[in-house]
Q: What sequence folds into this?
């Protein structure tokens, strides 16, 4: 294609979605071309298309496929790994108009959500139904359902209720050739073939466009109590976290924050080396005994929490009102903003086996003191499901080589101990060069070579779901984690409706 944007393609796309929903000028497309971190994107011209439903998505994707144009899908654009923005000229399919909830089943606790529906809208829609959506995290006002599915988003409730994949009962998707696959029945058991919804969860746009999702809900608790518990060390906080997760079933949130995080907002009621944000939730009593609003049960659960941490806790703040609860959560939710205010942030979203967490933290601290003595390490995360966010700020004086050495230190320390370099943020562009740490360890190298051979054979026989025959070519981009590291041709790039 000699000229970009191509007038014929723009006209064809406008015929599908309307001229008002095709953006080409640099000012209008700026927020779609760059992510909010400022670390990823392109200054090259792009065409932004905003379809309203699955039929429009299918037509847009088919036209892009015929033209051989790069496609990136984008939802709230709150991702942290550069997967939701283009790296060169192409088409951005923005799902922001694909909002809405339908087919709510009050008996079984299910509904269907459009890909552009934000997490906050989903929470609000079911807030008075006796049900709730299990996934929650700080970017709820902007993150979209399509992006959460595409990245298999986690959040604060994962250790009790699972990641996004555990909430998805079915999907409606558009493949890279424009074909529509729809499976929104919502049955919880279906062994008639591959779990396609499970495969698409976490696929980061490599398989196509997610348009709607059938989501499972969980019962809304009758009572919730939030507490911030301080400890004299991260080690003691970790020990307490394991005890709470194991012994107090009513606990559904355990968030770790180190001293740097606690001090970032200047309003923590607990001053300590580390703290756990703990939330206890209970269902209403359905029998003849006890309080039906759940207050007795939550008080008992809170007492159990206290008994298990009192030996090592240095202080506890318990929220007694909704305002105090919001204030405690503001400490946790405000960490990202506080870090960003310091300048560039090196973000490491990792999973570490519980027994190895302290060893990883110690190794990273020692190496960081050598490579970047003035840098600060921020330690926080969803500790009960082994997910830590190890972020580094104040790296302005470090050389590019030292910055890369810092990244290698974190990735290698995690990988050597059987962890994952991406717990919930995905791979995107940020972690593409480090993916072999998790997917090509020496203990799995031979097995993955076999997987690649099988994938190559399947692609050559055109039997892989999502492969598209374009003339004599089979076009499919599969992230290493999807098809054992085998990459064919990257015309379909980026993260699907990325959060």
A:
């Amino acid at each position: 294609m000699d000229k970009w944007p191509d007038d014929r393609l723009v006209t064809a796309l406008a015929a599908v979605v309307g001229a008002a929903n095709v953006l080409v000028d640099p000012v209008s497309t700026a927020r779609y071309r760059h992510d909010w971190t400022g670390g990823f994107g392109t200054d090259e011209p792009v065409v932004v298309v905003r379809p309203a439903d699955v039929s429009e998505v299918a037509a847009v994707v088919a036209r892009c496929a015929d033209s051989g144009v790069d496609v990136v899908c984008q939802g709230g654009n709150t991702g942290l790994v550069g997967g939701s923005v283009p790296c060169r000229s192409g088409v951005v399919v923005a799902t922001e108009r694909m909002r809405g909830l339908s087919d709510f089943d009050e008996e079984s606790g299910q509904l269907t959500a459009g890909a552009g529906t934000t997490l906050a809208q989903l929470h609000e829609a079911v807030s008075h139904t006796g049900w709730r959506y299990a996934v929650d995290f700080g970017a709820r006002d902007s993150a979209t359902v399509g992006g959460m599915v595409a990245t298999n988003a986690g959040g604060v409730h994962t250790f009790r209720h699972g990641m996004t994949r555990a909430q998805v009962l079915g999907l409606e998707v558009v493949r890279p050739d424009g074909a529509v696959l729809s499976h929104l029945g919502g049955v919880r058991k279906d062994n008639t073939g591959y779990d396609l919804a499970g495969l698409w969860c976490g696929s980061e746009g490599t398989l196509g466009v997610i348009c709607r999702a059938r989501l499972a809900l969980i019962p809304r608790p009758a009572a919730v109590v939030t507490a911030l518990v301080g400890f004299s060390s991260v080690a003691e906080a970790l020990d307490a976290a394991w005890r709470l997760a194991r012994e107090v079933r009513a606990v559904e949130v355990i968030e770790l924050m180190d001293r740097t995080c606690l001090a970032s907002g200047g309003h923590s009621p607990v001053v300590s080396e580390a703290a756990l944000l703990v939330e206890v939730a209970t269902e209403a009593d359905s029998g003849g005994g006890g309080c039906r609003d759940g207050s007795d049960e939550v008080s008992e659960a809170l007492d159990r929490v206290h008994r298990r941490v009192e030996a090592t806790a240095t202080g506890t703040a318990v929220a007694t009102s909704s305002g105090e609860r919001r204030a405690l959560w503001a400490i946790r939710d405000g960490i990202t903003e506080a870090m960003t205010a310091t300048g560039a942030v090196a973000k490491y979203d990792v999973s570490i086996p519980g027994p190895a967490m302290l060893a990883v933290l110690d190794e990273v601290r020692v190496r960081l003191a050598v490579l970047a003595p003035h840098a600060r390490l921020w330690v926080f995360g969803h500790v009960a499901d082994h997910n830590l966010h190890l972020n580094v700020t104040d790296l302005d004086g470090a050389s590019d080589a030292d910055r890369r050495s810092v990244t290698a230190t974190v990735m290698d320390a995690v990988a050597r101990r059987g962890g994952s370099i991406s717990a919930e943020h995905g791979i995107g562009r940020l972690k593409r060069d480090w993916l072999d740490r998790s997917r090509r360890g020496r203990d799995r190298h031979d097995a993955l070579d076999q997987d690649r051979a099988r994938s190559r054979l399947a692609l050559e026989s055109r039997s892989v779901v999502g492969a598209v025959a374009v003339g004599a070519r089979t076009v499919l981009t599969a992230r290493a984690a999807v098809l054992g590291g085998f990459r064919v041709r990257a015309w379909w790039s980026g993260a699907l409706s990325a959060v």
Summary: The longest helix spans residues 400-416.
